[in-house]
Amino acid sequence: MPKKDFVIIAIDGGAAAGKSSTSRALSQAFNLMHVDTGSFYRALTVKLLEAKIEPQSGDSMNEGLAALSLETHVEGNTASIVVDGWIPDETIRSTEVNQQVSRYAAIPELRKRLLGYQRSQADVARENGFAGLVMEGRDIGSAIFPDADLRLYLFADPVKRAQRRAAEGISDSIAARDKMDASRKASPLACPEGATLIDTSELSLEQVVAKVSDLFRATQEA
Ligand code: C5P
To answer: pLDDT per residue over 100-121, tens digit each?
Structure first.
């Protein structure tokens, strides 16, 4: 149980680096609200594709983004985005969205639209009685919560990551997404300065969770 009133753990890293499984396990171990910001970018991608809005800056992007209402649904330890209604998981994780999401995530206006919404999840967590927040993404420790109690950057060998996705039966463009995410101008994927780097290639989920839990406890005792 965290000793501080409210704690924030930021977990960044490339696709299939182990962020979601680790975040979920931490959320349950320490009564934290789990927020997967990748699902936010995916949900907006679904809506913009539906509206036939191209991944480029301009009036149509601004109008398309302004028309979307963003709400949160909390179930168990997980907070999910609701964008003008519920979007099924198989839709936000479809092959088409896997191929398109990084193109939309590179648009500064879209990232700006999500910035305040992502930060507001701390209030949602407080209102729902959680002891804190574990938020995963690409820029959480650098742009969203640079003052988080613990900032981690997970990475894994690309072959291992491809194997993880294949084992889940998902067709994903891991390497292409990472390349686009790391090379964009707006909040690129990178290990934030001062964050702790963890190579999960040879570690089981239990080992990663144990390591992160120790780091987290150490921040609580500091
Ligand atoms: O985490 P996930 O792989 O589901 O994220 C999907 C995509 O959303 C990423 O490849 C990236 O383009 C974008 N993303 C981002 N910033 C975040 C989280 C995700 O740009 N904080």
So the answer is: 999 999 999 999 999 999 999 9
Q: Are 128 and 77 in contact (CB under 8 A)?
A: no
Nearest CA to ligand 1 atom 15: 138
Per DSSP (E only), the strands in 76-211 are 78-83, 132-137, 150-155, 196-199
- Quote the ligand 1 centre to 213 CA distance (angstroms): 24
Pick the atom of ligand 1 nearest to 45's CA: 8
* CA neighbor of 103 nearest in space, from 112, 114, 111: 111
Ordered structural domains, the chain, with CATH: 11-220 (3.40.50.300)
Which residues, in sequence order, are CB contacts of 82 under 8 Å at separation 6+?
Answer: 70, 71, 72, 73
Termini Cα distance of the chain = 15
Instruction: Indicate whether this model's pTM tops 0.90.
Output: yes
> What is the per-residue pLDDT across 61-105, written as a single tens digit (0 to 9) for each?
999 999 999 999 999 999 999 999 889 999 999 999 999 999 999
Pocket of ligand 1 (CB under 6 A): 15, 37-38, 41-42, 101-102, 105, 137-140, 177, 181
Ligand 1 pocket test target in 99, 101, 152 with most atoms within 8 Å of CB = 101
